[in-house]
Amino acid sequence: MKITIILFSLFVLLNPYAHADAVSIPMGGSAPDFSLESIEGKTVSIDDFRGKVTVLIYWRPDQKRSVLALKDGMELYRSYREKGVEVVTLVADTEKKEDVLKSVKKAGVEFPVLMDTDRKVYGDYGIRVYPSTVIIDKEGKLSYDIPGHAVTYRSAVEGYVRRLLGEINDEELNGILNPHKEKKDKSALEAERRYNLALKFTESGLNDQAIDALNKSIEAKSDIAKSYILLGFLLLEDKEADAALDAFNKAIKLEPGSHDAKTGIGGALILKGDLDGAIEILNDAAKANPYPQKTYYELGMAYELKGEKDSAIKMYKKALDKIVKKKILPSSMSK
């Protein structure tokens, strides 16, 4: 099976900005026929490419991104011609033949240049933007189109070519077209998997394994606050105040209103001996907190360490009251 890349150069002024589609004709239908003369005087018809995959790229020599598309087409041709790739360009304005020849020479084009003198192809395909790329399958059906020339242009065209060659499947093509999204999704899934594993380790009392899983969760995706929060509480249990405080502060940067992160900071400050600072942030954490039992418990500890027995008892009672009303077992408080 052969792939043919046809680069059309149309020199009529159109809106240069990107459109949702490169052409007005719908994908899935038959590609309009054409038969045109090349600058060498040879007649080339679209029928010459039946049974092959054909890529049509409309471009202008006086537009930088169009010339870049031409160069990308040439690079693709050099990479795939051994697999049956051919390239043809097409020009609409024969009066600018010298400009066309100059652009073709500059791009190192090694394939024919066709002249769309009457702009028949331009009209039949309904070109909307320069450059415009249309990919036709071997049965002559319109398969894909690409408006303009984005930074991902080369990889997108090559991906479509490889898909129609049967070298990759739809999932692999999607990975080529959306590389950042795929990476993001994989990172998020890995981070969530590690976090859930850490929860299971925590429930089994395997804190070291839980901490390791959380560090790997954060390594996979560093902008998830809950991973830092759980890590912080585990570090508190190990009496590592500074490390816990660092984890909670990172969580606060991601979620400034997090009651859990503030409660954790309060707990870390208690371990460090900053009781006034702990009481201040814990009181703030208790405000509008639907589950403040842990916060009240930490406040009770802070007041007790300060020697303020009455305030400590008051906070402990509040914590117990919340536990009874919410039907939360004491063993579940740290969750």
- Topology order in helix (H) and strand (E) letters: EEEEHEHEHEEHHHHHHHHHH
CATH fold call of the largest domain: Glutaredoxin
Annotation, overall tally of beta strands: 8
Number of helices: 13
How many structurally independent domains?
A: 2
Describe the model:
It is a single chain. The protein has 335 residues and is an alpha/beta fold. The chain has 2 domains: 3-177, Glutaredoxin, CATH 3.40.30.10; 223-332, Alpha Horseshoe (Serine Threonine Protein Phosphatase 5, Tetratricopeptide repeat), CATH 1.25.40. It contains 13 helices and 8 strands. The protein has helices at residues 64-80, 97-107, 120-125, 153-165, 170-177, 179-203, 207-220, 225-237, 241-254, 259-272, 275-286, 293-306, 309-326; strands at 3-9, 35-38, 43-45, 53-59, 85-91, 113-115, 132-136, 142-147. An 8-stranded mixed beta sheet has the order 3-2-6-5-1-4-7-8, covered by helices on one side. Helix 4 (153-165) packs antiparallel against helix 5. The chain is rod-shaped, with a radius of gyration of 33 Å. The model is unreliable at 8-19 and 326-335 (pLDDT under 50).
List the helices and strands and how they pair.
Elements: E1 3-9, E2 35-38, E3 43-45, E4 53-59, H1 64-80, E5 85-91, H2 97-107, E6 113-115, H3 120-125, E7 132-136, E8 142-147, H4 153-165, H5 170-177, H6 179-203, H7 207-220, H8 225-237, H9 241-254, H10 259-272, H11 275-286, H12 293-306, H13 309-326
Parallel strand pairs: 1-4, 1-5, 5-6
Antiparallel strand pairs: 2-3, 2-6, 4-7, 7-8
